[in-house]
Amino acid sequence: MRIVTWNVNSIKARADYVLDYFATRAPDIVCLQELKVPDDDFPFDRLSDLGYEAAVHGQRQWNGVAVVARNPTTITQEGLPGCGDAGARLVTADVSGVSVTSVYVPNGKTVEHDDFALKLRWLDALIEYLAGVRADAGPMIVAGDFNLCPADVDSYHPDAASGAIFHTAAERDRYRRIVELGLVDIYRAVAPNDPGYSWWDYRGGSFHKGMGLRIDLLLATPDLAQSVTSVAVDRTFRKKRPAIPDVKPSDHAPVEAMIRGGPSPPFGHPPDRRSLAVDMLGPGRASRPSRVQPG
Fold it and tell me: CA-based angle 64:69:71, to the nearest 5?
């Protein structure tokens, strides 16, 4: 079973690109963020043609999240309770007995900005919500753009950015509390020393220089995490695609984990791993901080 999280940075602008990913990689469960479309403009039909169902919580121009899967998908929660003012940033779906939550944590802008307090409040609400789900659910996946670096290894410039947005003790403490609910950071469990960057600024050659952040995270309950066979950042889908050269890729790359078994068929088909393994991480950490924040 291939599970993926990906901030697509507008599915309307990148529909052909995103559909190319589904056709090429054939994932089983994908958590999408930053759709930037209302539900009516989501490409349900095109995904259905590829064999997928989607649970969508959309919003025009901003935010928007989805859970896309090959098996029947039923929404169990739309929006984070008590945080509707922050926009469409959470959707939970039941996928053949697995609780799957796609999250898009508020950016926060800077630690001095009012949005930073909103971000911390949103994370507090997320902890409370996930604690309830964890108590009631069996197998569970929580994935998305968390807009924070859990540790120094997750940032190319941890010393320069210490105490700055995405790198604060307050953000990391809340992330730790999420994990302590009984979830495993799959990427870090498998690759404890690899940077695993998933976001790079469009400017300054950041992608090719390795100036990135690991902010797109896959969490799972131990029963799923213990069956993970590999993890990867799919850098191929952070580059232009030859078949659609006019479509600019998202500034985020898909992050995936392969899990043995999983729900009943059609999960578990052989994956297409062309070019993924050799293009997993790219250059190492650079020394100069980025000047632009991720979305």
Answer: 140
